[in-house]
Each structure stands twice: as C-alpha cells, then as structure tokens.
Amino acid sequence: MKKIFLLLFFLPLCAFAQKTSILKGTVKNKNKQPIENVSIKFGKTGTVTDKKGNYSIRIPYKKEITIKFSHISFRTFEYTLTAKSRTTLRFSPTLFLKTEKLEEIVVKDRKKEAQGFLNIDPLKAKTIIGANAGIENILMTLPGVNNNNELSTQYNVRGGNFDENLVYVNGIEVYRPFLIRSGQQEGLSFINPNMVQNINFSAGGFQAKYGDKLSSVLDITYRKPKEISTSLEASLLGGSVTFEGGFLNNKLKIITGARYRDNSLFVNSKQIETNFRPTFTDLQSFITYNFTNNFSLSYLSNFSLNNYNYQPFSRKTRFGTVADPLELIVFYDGKEENNYLTLFNAVSADYKVNDNLSFKTTISSYNTQEEEYYDIAASYNLGEVDTNIGSESFGEVDFTQGIGSQLNHARNDLDALINNVQIRGSYKVDKKKIDFGVKYQNEDIRERIREWEIIDSLGFSVRPPNQLVNNNQPYEPFEGPITPFQNIREDNHVVINRFTGFVQYNERLYMGNNEVWYNFGLRAHNWTVSANGQKSSNQIILSPRAQFALKPNWQQDMLFRFSGGWYKQPPSYRELKNFNGKINKDVKAQSSLHLVAGMDYSFNLWERPFKLTTELYYKDLTNVNAYSIDNVRIRYRADNLTTAYAQGFDLRLNGEFVPGSESWVSLGYLKTEENIDNKGDISRPSDQRLKFGILFQDYVPNLPNLKAYLNLVYNTGVPGGAPSYSDVYSFQKRLRDYKRADLGVSYVFADANKQYKTGWMSKFKELTAGLELFNMFDIQNAITNTWVRDVYSKNQFGIPNFMTGRVLNFKVSMQF
Hints:
The protein is mostly beta strands. It is elongated. Mean pLDDT is 86; it is low at 1-18 and 101-107.
C-alpha cells in the first residue's frame, strides 16, 4: 500500500520535471561587478539575485518565453529564449545604469510656519558677525526685535521689555541674573551656540503650551551627537571648546562646552578711561541615555561665573549742537567689584507609551548668587566750548556752567533659588493632537540692599526733591543733617509658589483642496507670594489662546496665519520690587489682548528661492507695571496703575541674493505708548518706531572659500529716561538713532566639501580663520543718559553714554 502511495506522489513531479529546464547565471554591471536584488520574471514566475548576483529559475521546455531583468537603478533588460533540452542553461546579462532626468520635488514642512515660528539655521548663528555673537545676535536682525546695546544679549520684542521674553532649552525655561545693570556686566548668554541643533522663534501670538509672558518665545534644542568630534574657537575676545560623541552603541550621547570671554577689547574703545578687565566663564553639558526605544533620560547642567572689576579714572564727553556745544569732564576715584555665580541642573525622563501617547517629566533647579559692591566718587565740570574760530582758546572750555560731585555706594547681595517639577504629555491620532502639562515651581529670593548716593553742587549737598525742608542759605545757616539724595536700605525675603497647567488641541485637515492648521488652548496659573513675614497673597489667572493657518491651493505658494489670545504675566521678584526696593506682594499679573495676522509668500527670483514674510500686530495692555530702563537694568513701579498699547508691522524678505548663500532684509514699524495713572499717553521706554536690518552673506566667485558677512542695523532712538525722583512726563527727549555695521571676512581651509586625505590638514574636519570688524564706521551710539545739574539755570542735562567704537578682532575655529 505504501509503494502505491509513493508512486502516486512522485508521478506528477516526474511529469513536471520532464516539461521544465533550469536557467542559471550571474547578473553584473558594465564594470563586471555583481548586482544584488535584480528581479527576474516571466509570466507569474520570478526570483531575485543574491549578494553575488547569482540567480536560478525553472523555465518551460520547448516553449518560447520572454524573461525580464529589472532593477531600480538599472535599465530593464528583456531576453527571449526557448529551452530545447532538459539540461541546465546559463545566461549572464550585463545591466546599465539609468540616466533619467527626474523632476525636482520640494517637500516643505509647514507646521512651524503655521504656528508662527521662524526656524533659524544654527550655523548662521555661529558665523554671523556681532559684538556678542550667538543666538541673540541673529535675533537682532529680525523685524520687531530691538536692542541698542551690543554688549548685551537681552532684547525687546514688539514694545515689550527684557523680562517679557520666554527662553527654553530642551523644553526647560532658563532665567537671566537679577542685579546686572549694564551690558558690559552681562557677559555670556546661557545658550551655547556651539551645542545648538534647532532654533525656533516667535515674536508673538504663541501657543498655550508655552509659558506666561507677554512678548516672545525662543525655543532652543541642543543636539544629540552620533560621532566623536572636538571643536575649538579662539579670538582676541576669548575662546571656547566643545566635545561631543556617541558611546555604548550610541545609547549614551554627550555634548559639553566650555567658554571664556574677555570684553577688554570693547571697553578700551569707550570714552571712559578705566582699569577694567571683565571676564566671563561658563561650562555646560547635555547628556542623554536611551535605555530603550521608548524610554530615555537626559541631564542638562550649567555653571557660569562673571567677574566684573571696574575702576574708572576719567571721562570726557562732548554733546549738544554745533552752534552750542557743551563738554563734560569727569574725574573718578574708587572702584566697583561685582560677582555673579549661576548654577543650573535639570533631569528629564522621556517615555513613549505607544505611537500615540508620550510623556516627559523634568526636575530642574536654578541658583544665582550675586554681589554688587562699589564706592565711586565723581567730580565733574560742565562747560561751554569756545566755537570762535579766531579765538586762541578755540575748541576749549571757556565758561563753566556746572561744578559738582557725587558719591555712589552699594553693598548689595542676592541669593535666588528656583526649583520646579513639570510633567508634559501629548496624545495624537491621525492629524489630531492634544498637548497637556502641569508644573509646580518654588522661588526663594533673599536680597540685602544697601545703596545710597550723595550729590554735591558748588559745595552744597543736594537733598532729595521729596523732602520739603526750608533752606534759606547763605542768609540763614542750615543746621539739619546731610541727607543722601537717594538712600535704599532693605532686607527682602520673598517666597513664591506657582502652580501652572495647560491643555491644547491641535489639528491639521483639508477644506476642499486647501490645507488648514488650527489649535486652541487654555493656561491656568495660581501663585502665592510671601514677603518679609507678611500675610501671603494668592491670585489666579486664565489665559486662552488660539491659532489658525490656511494654505490655499493656489498656483502661488502662500500661507496665511491668524493668532491671538489673552496673554498674562504674573509678577516675578523684579516686578514686585518698586524703585525704593520695597516689596508689594499684591502686584497683579499684567494682561495683554494680543492679535496677530501674517502671511508667508514663497517664490522664485533669478531662478533662486525667496520668501516674503509679513505680520501685523496689536496689543492692548492692562494692569501694566510701568518701568524705567537704565542700560539693561529695569526698575518697576510695582503698582499696576498703567494702561498701554503696542501696534505695528514686521516685514522680512529672505533668499539667495547670492547663489548658495541665504541673506535677508528686515523692516519693522512699532508704536507703543502708556498712560500712567490717567496722566495721558506718553512713549514707553521701548518705543522704537523704525527698525531696518540687513544680514548679507557673500563669497568671491573665483575663490568660493573666501566668504564675507555683513550685519547692518538701523534703529530710531528710544526715550532717554529721566533723573531719579523726577516726573517721566517731563523727560521725553529721545536718544539719537542707533546705527551699526559689523563686517566679517573668513577663509574656509577645510569643511565638509573640502577634505584632505594627506598632510597636516587631513586632521581637520573644519578649519576657518578670519577678521571681524565691529562698528566699522565708528558711529557713536548712545545707550543711556547721565544727568548733570546746572546750578545757574537749575536745568538738568542728559549727557549720552556711548557704546563701543570701532574694534578689530581675529578669530579662528576648527573641528577635528
């Protein structure tokens, strides 16, 4: 029975074998190299070649067939044959590469544009010339972003101040020091441009998932390296070193950067003769470890130390008009010693539950320890300059209008500790996404203020204007005590506990052939303030926000955006403290109804890509905490007695004005005014009406490795501030317009497109050297006014404090 079964089983196979033959061979290219994964097919029968290009396939006996050899990279080949015997046949064809001309396909991710974010190339932030090169430096070239202080990394956005900007690094909010008064004290920004992977910036109308500020968001992502490399930079202003690499099969990724900066080169170009060498140092690390594809831990740390030792000797400043010039001569005695130590640590855990749901938990701690100690005596002479060309004293002071002196003293200490923990999550299905999060933050600030100023004019001590004391000298002797013109003595201990949360819905869909993005969300913020043992104050706010973007199915590539909401900013420690250093724990959150309408238009010009971006905006502000600005020091009224508005438009055209190099032109108009306690509208301290900026990159056509960078900014003047205790409504004169041009020229010895296989240059992945010329037209730009009293006319003159002059710097950077 078994023999019958086996016979029945093998008979069909034998019959089939008698009707087929075997075709074998090797498929190669024109260089006689085997080709893998070539498809070989006739009818419904087929196979593919192995790594050695070999194949084997059964074909019918005594039947004509056409067999096809095809591959994605090679031309298809067809061969017709008939197997005339049952023996194995061999056929080894040669395939040739395709030389097809493909149409260019451009894939654009419109998500960030729809959300109102501008994405900036980190490489440009490193190469663009500027006195304080870095991320903030490139922001100054954008419309709506202003700063008249090249030594500062702070910036104003659409009428706001420095404290109204959100800055995130890897989703963690970072802060700026509290006591810094001037840009030359500020030093290095928290953001290390050598570690940055992605830069996104929004000038307003941002989403609910970002924090409670009124003006802007700068969202920075540090990179996670995959290969080991070291980068070095050195110049007359300092240097930096960055190490990065992936270890343990790229599960462990480390990037660490150390920076050192010495601003002596800039300070020596100023009008004040000083013994001054400000130095700034920081060390930053970002470490990530991937336990699995769904779970990872990351650690971000920063150590920063600023030493500011300042000993002025003399100053000579001429101001006024050509017909009526004045000269201020000041002789100093004393010095200033400031130290700012900052420590920052953050640990984050990212967990991906599945393809739709993910969470991120972050614990961070920020500590700043600041000392501000100075005793500086200044004796001044304010006089009229002889303008008579025939006079022997032409150009010299021939009449003194004011003689006086002042003594400034401070022993200020601040220690701030900010701890927080937050959980953020996102849930997405198809084109829909929900973002949500909660955060708890504790702020513990301790400050000791001992600050006073004595002013003397022609031998008489000037008393503060708010003291009504009869003084009939020299007819009647005054026997009262000598009172400082300004005297602040406070010991503040403020604790702020904050609970915040948000939820946001996002969706992308199609309306007909038109693409639409929209999101709406709600933020809630509850905070409690305890100050100097007083009964705590508790407040809560809600902040709804929404965005809508439309990409019509037009021949022109255009995108329209609309966003707005009620943006609210609960007070920080600086906003709780008034001019006299006293704490008002009941200060309310500033509120802004913010509306933004924008358009992006992408087009080709000279057969190169260009993009025109325009935005209109309006802010209606209530519960405003009015302030004054002295250099980069902000002093608040802490009373919420002000209303304000800001309105304007921004325009930016970017593209390849020079083939292969992106440049842009920016234009912005702003008008912002405030009404303090119903006294009428006046310009706010940040009312900078017109902004014009150019960021231009070029190279020599016959020598493309020789590159040039031009950074040009023009800003109209802002209000010049007011003397202490004075009515700001009486001092609305503006500073002169801010005009600055920085030029950089560099030669690229090695980069990704230019590598050496032998010699000492083969050790470098990148090597660049060049010259930087700051303020190349040597324009005198004013940042603030020094107020000097004329004893005869009782007038107060605002003498401009000028920024840096022309400075030449040499810079070299390398990577290996």
